Amino acid sequence: MILIIGPLYSGKKTYAKELMNWTDDQLAQYAVWDVQDLAAAHTNLEQLAEKLSENKVVIATEIGGGIVPIDPQQRHAREAAGRLTCLLAQKATTVIRVFCGIPTVLKGEVTL
Amino acid sequence: MITLVIGGAASGKSEFAESLVLNAGELPRYYIATMQPFDGECKTRIQRHRAMRKEKKFTTIECFVDLKRVLLPLKGVVLLECMSNLVANELYSPQGAGTDAADAIKEGIEQLHRQCEHLIVVSNEVFTGGCSYEGDTLHYLKVLAQVNRMVAQQANNVYEVVYGMPICHKGEENTL
Description:
Shape of chain A: globular
Number of domains of chain B: 1
CATH class of chain B: Alpha Beta
Number of helices of chain B: 5
CATH class of chain A: Alpha Beta
Oligomer: heterodimer
Largest sheet of chain A: 5 strands, mixed
Helix content of chain B: 25-40%
CATH architecture of chain B: 3-Layer(aba) Sandwich
Structural class of chain B: alpha/beta
Number of strands of chain A: 5
Order of helices and strands of chain A: EHHEHEHEE
Distance between the termini of chain B: 14 Å
CATH topology of chain A: Rossmann fold
CATH architecture of chain A: 3-Layer(aba) Sandwich
Order of helices and strands of chain B: EHEHEEHHEHEE
Distance between the termini of chain A: 17 Å
Number of domains of chain A: 1
Shape of chain B: globular
Strand content of chain A: 15-25%
Helix content of chain A: 25-40%
């Protein structure tokens, strides 16, 4: 599984399509995105990470920056999102961070 | 040449961008200021930046909207700061381009680039604080991100500044 992370609107899906040479339909079929939003509703993040890793590409938005949210639910959601993404990074063969549309390989190798 | 310098609040991105200008040598130096002095806080910030640029021989040009109308008398180095203000002005000020903000800025950047040797654009990293935004904030983030990606694509060099330390995402690190 390839994990693609990056700030909000940094061009993660566009890069995934470019990397895999996919169409929008293929992206929808083989990739899953906004996985940071799934974490809060799961008690077993390991299981969720395992399930998500069955996709060829998993895309997560970095949401851990900024002020810790005052609302307990939002705080929990952000915490869970971070923990989930750490688990995904461990399971991934390759981790790529997209910043302003520019990819940086954080783990593994990519032959472009 | 275009260089994009991006960083969070108080990351040292301005100081780094200014150091790039100084390293470009004895070329005319223009500073394009995009922040409108709305209140005391803005004025204090502007004063702090003016003090930083003192002795560095910058000619300051204020441009709150419509970047393409900026005319530079000589071909030199241009520091545009900050894209986050320019996007907000184009989107929300009465004189702004409104829904055409991103296109207007793209055209402005191209015009500026033609008039100088080196264009350095400073922008703000505000995209890792969550994704549960709505309305105007969401729209603003989308447009700023679009402009950042557009400038990054055109740029020869892209730096992210973290507490005064530049991370090179694109181009040559030896331009420092």
